[in-house]
Amino acid sequence: MLLISRGAPRHRGAVEDGSELLIVILMPCLNEAEVIGASVQRLTSIPDPGMRIMVIDDGSDDGTAAAVEAIDDPRVEVMRRVPPRARLGKGEALNDALDLVRRKCAGYPDRRVVIGVMDADGRLDPHAIAEARTAFSSSRVGAVQMGVRINNRFHSLLARMQDMEFVIFTEVFQRGRRRLGSVGMGGNAQFVRLSALNALGPRPWTRSLTEDFDLGIRLNATAWTNEFWPHASVHQQGVTSLRRLLRQRTRWFQGNLQAITLLRRVVRDHRGWGRADTLWQILTPYMLLAGSLLTLSFLITLLTALVVTVLGWRQPWIWVIGAYIVAFGPGLIYGLIYWRIERSQGLGVIKALCYAHLFVLYGLLPSLYGWRALARAVTGRTGWAKTAREAEPAPESEAAPP
Predict the structure, then answer these.
(1) Percent of the chain residues past pLDDT 90, beyond the cut
(2) Residue 24 lies in a domain
(3) What secondary structure, in 3-state letters, does the chain show?
(4) Domain closes at, from 218, 240, 262
(5) Residue 385: which pLDDT band, with cuts at 50, 70 and 90?
(6) pLDDT recorded at residue 13
(7) Structural domain count of the chain
(8) What predicted TM-score, i.e. pTM, was given to this entire model?
(9) Range of the domain at 101
(10) Do 335 and 365 belong to one domain?
(11) What is the average pLDDT across 323-331?
């Protein structure tokens, strides 16, 4: 995938004028008063008259709606969901908002309306909306996913690992999937033509715990092309508590397990290398669970070799070197890729290589939360509390990356 990612995408199509697009950004919120005001103000600082912002208050009881209504911008509106329709999941909130968008945009051609999805803590780069218009200039592109960065990566080592994770995912895997035709969608900075969403039916988002992953797979089975756009990013909060991170990733892992129901659709409707890669994505959590047993065995062997070395017993050093290369070789490559992206922010190559070693250990976390996710899936538990946010100050003037 690393080699494939270095090439340019192959899709073509007629060139369209992206400046004529109406971009409607949906922001589902459940008790997001800590961050939503600052996030919406950053969006309104982008001087694009063809952009609309719809905040979906999904039954909040903390003043989320009031924080948005205090913002004086005609492009912003709040959609309130109340019981019994509230708090049924992000997918249901997006579907209800989409129904409203369809009614409000009835006079626009479906292919000229783009639906963006952002999290409540999302900070788009100031040029991101202009880049979205450029990305949709190809008539074949039905969906665009931008990169994701962690804005508090400078203040938390755990947040730094999450930033490295997202950078590697986008720079290697998403870039590679541009050529394979299997680009995935994320829950933040996802942009989809209304006509592409309509191809999936009246309610395109499902109740999956990872409705974004599910949507991306089904969009790839349509005549539209999913595109990853590396020229702009959304910046979001990283989780700074290991306990909360494990809970968040357990939910994500369980959502990926749910995607097994899409296997038949992928085999039937996807084509070429894109089909093979999508099957790989769906089966990855199951392979990670199986691989975690081998990982445990490898760690025990590595620890034994370390103890033997400390005790001064003789052993073939070629084995130790080989084990190090197997364990940390890919991580070192990822560290150099991350350094290339982050060096403009002052990251040195030595520090990047240190992060690479930590990133390998960070990559062992699925061995912890994966089995918990499987247990929840087997016992039919699908309810989840949202990940808590940390308060952020409102911007002084315009949206800007950290």
Answers:
(1) 79
(2) yes
(3) CCCHHHCCCCCCCCECCHHHCEEEEEEEECCCCCCHHHHHHHHHCCCCCCEEEEEEEECCCCCHHHHHHCCCCCCEEEEEECCCCCCCCHHHHHHHHHHHHHHHCCCCCHHHEEEEECCCCCEECCCHHHHHHHHCCECCEEEEEEEEEECCCCCCHHHHHHHHHHHHHHHHHHHHHHHHCCCCCCCCCEEEEHHHHHCCCCCCCCCCCCHHHHHHHHHCCCCCEEEEEEEEEEEECCCCCHHHHHHHHHHHHHHHHHHHHHHHHHHHHCCHHHHHHHHHHHHHHHHHHHHHHHHHHHHHHHHHHHHHHHHCCCCCHHHHHHHHHHHHHHHHHHHHHHHHHHHHHCCCHHHHHHHHHHHHHHCCCHHHHHHHHHHHHHCCCCCCCCCCCCCCCCCCCCCCCC
(4) 240
(5) low
(6) 66
(7) 2
(8) 0.90
(9) 9-240
(10) yes
(11) 88
